[in-house]
Amino acid sequence: MSAQYNLSTPLTDEDVSKLEIGDVVLLTGTIYTARDAAHKRLVESLDKGETLPFDLKGALIYYVGPSPAPPGRPIGAAGPTTSYRMDSYAPRLHSLGLKATIGKGKRSDEVKAALAKYTAVYFGATGGAGALLSQCIKAARVIAYEDLGPEAIRELSVVDFPLLVINDAKGGELYVKPKLA
Hints:
Layout: E1 4-8, H1 13-17, E2 24-33, H2 36-47, E3 60-62, H3 90-95, E4 100-103, H4 109-117, E5 121-124, H5 130-134, E6 137-144, E7 153-167
Parallel strand pairs: 1-2, 2-3, 3-4, 4-5
Antiparallel strand pairs: 2-7, 5-7, 6-7
C-alpha cells in the first residue's frame, strides 16, 4: 500500500529510508537542476578537486531544462527529461551525499545499486506536465554554467512539488508493464 509524505529539503537518511516504491511525496524546499552537460562539468570539477556550485549532502537534482520564464513567473515549463543520460554520473554524486534525483524513465543497475548503498532515492515527475509542475516552483535562479542556457544549473524553490518514488533505497523498482492490445 502506497503512502504519501510531505518532505522538506535537505533530505536525510531517515527521510529516504521510509520511502517505498509507489509512495507519493510532496516536496518543499530547494532543489537543483542539471542535465547532461552540467553533470559532465560537475564530475570534471570533482576530478580537479574543485568545490561544486552547491552542497550535495541531502540535495536533490531535477533533470530538467526549463523553458524561458513568461512575464510574472520565475520559470517556464519545467518537465522532466529522460534520466538514463545521467546514469554514468549519478553513482559518484550519490557517494558524495546526493539524496535524490528526479526525472523520467528507468535507471541502470549501477544507479539502483548506488541508491541502496548510499541511502538515496529516484523520483519520477510527470512527463508532459511541465507547465503544471512549474506552478510548484516559486523561485528560480542560475547558480552555475550560465553558458549552457536552459541546461545551466538552477536553484529552485519549490512548494508541494509532486513526486512518485520509482526506485527506493531498498532496491525496489516501480515499473508498470504496458498493456498490449
